[in-house]
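Researcher: We're teaching a course module on how sequence relates to structure. For the next exercise, students receive a sequence and then see the predicted structure as tokens, so they can try to spot secondary structure elements on their own. Here is the exercise chain.
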Amino acid sequence: MRGAALLLALLLSAGAATADVARPRDLETLLAVLQNAALATGDATEVQIRDDKLYLTWNGTALIADPHNLFMEMQQAASDAERQKLVDTYFAAFDDILQLDTGVLDPASLMPIIRPSTFAEHIPDAKSVASEPWFAGLSIYLVEDSPSSTAYLRNDRMQAVGLDFETAKKQALANLSTLSPRFEPLGPKRWGLVLDGYYESSLLLESELWRRMAEDQGEIIMVVPSRDAVVIDASGDPAAVQELAIFAQESGRARPYPVSEYVFGWKGTHWEILPKQ
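Model: And here is the predicted structure for the students to work with:
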């Protein structure tokens, strides 16, 4: 039996909902729902709840599912049917994870994500995850992307195809640069960055994008409270830093997949943390 750690990105729905799911009142309730649902699929055995995680064997492979972010998604879902879709997607992604885990690494699937440096601590043997410290208490993690899920890239999979971290990161950044974000106006010289709901925050690493924007718009500042919430301001208004800081604090605590509460300023070649006003 192989062991695997699990990271699920709830991006696409999969399969028909068989019953609607009510909003869970707490994480313990959600874990019980997932335990029963996993057993009902016929693909899972040895399903146990320990340490706020779901331990199970899925089609012969041991998995550990951490549903904290799913819980926050479930809280924000507007209907029981929408929550059922999230659960359907969660289990559909298990098969994608296994395919990623057992197949040959495709460099074209690599993407970078930015998360707090403590992000992977819930994964057994977290040191096996391909990552490096960045700045501001954040780290760059490499993931293998598929249509319905992502999986942390492990060092052994990276090394099996002759890649070191720097080479793999370079490929991931090149893949990131092919994406086309939109800038949705939020006010005078203020925009929300819109991509796919997953890689918005990763675009902090796309230096050429910010270099061009700074040349066009002037000095830019940014907050990234969660993976899909990125706000950029080029107004030059002294009050903008405080406004974005308040937004980052309030939004980061309410949304799943938090990133940072800092306000960042672009300094020509890199980001810096701006002092609180």
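Model: If you want an answer key for the exercise: Residues 1-18 have pLDDT under 50 and may be disordered. The longest helix spans residues 80-102.
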